[in-house]
Amino acid sequence: MLSQIPILPEFIPHLQWWLDEETLLAPSSCATIFVSYDGREQGRVGCSSGTTLSDSFRVVVSS
């Protein structure tokens, strides 16, 4: 079962990913992370700038 939570600026230091941070922080961008309860986190990030571009990524939430 997956839960959907927004990526907030305070979460950024606790996430590891292979995306340019400017993509996530740009005003025309939005991001959603899907966190699974079995310890593996997967999600997608998409730009809301009028394109349909989206990139798959894997994040690791540190404690």
What this model shows, in words?
- The chain is mainly beta and 63 residues long.
- 8% of the residues lie in helices and 48% in strands.
- The chain is built from 1 helix and 5 strands.
- A hairpin with a 6-residue loop joins strand 4 and strand 5.
- It is globular.
- The chain starts with a strand and ends with a strand.
- The longest helix has 5 residues, at 21-25.
- It has one helix at 21-25, and strands at residues 2-6, 15-16, 29-36, 41-47, 54-61.
- It has one domain (2-61).
- With strands numbered from the N-terminus, the spatial order across the biggest sheet is 1-3-4-5-2
- Indicate the low-confidence ranges by residue numbers: 44-57
Kindly report how far apart the N and C termini lie: 21 Å
Share of residues in strands: over 45%
Topology summary:
Elements: E1 2-6, E2 15-16, H1 21-25, E3 29-36, E4 41-47, E5 54-61
Antiparallel strand pairs: 1-3, 2-5, 3-4, 4-5
List the keywords:
63 residues, mainly beta, 1 helix, 5 strands, 8% helix
Structure in a nutshell:
The chain has 63 residues and is mostly beta strands.
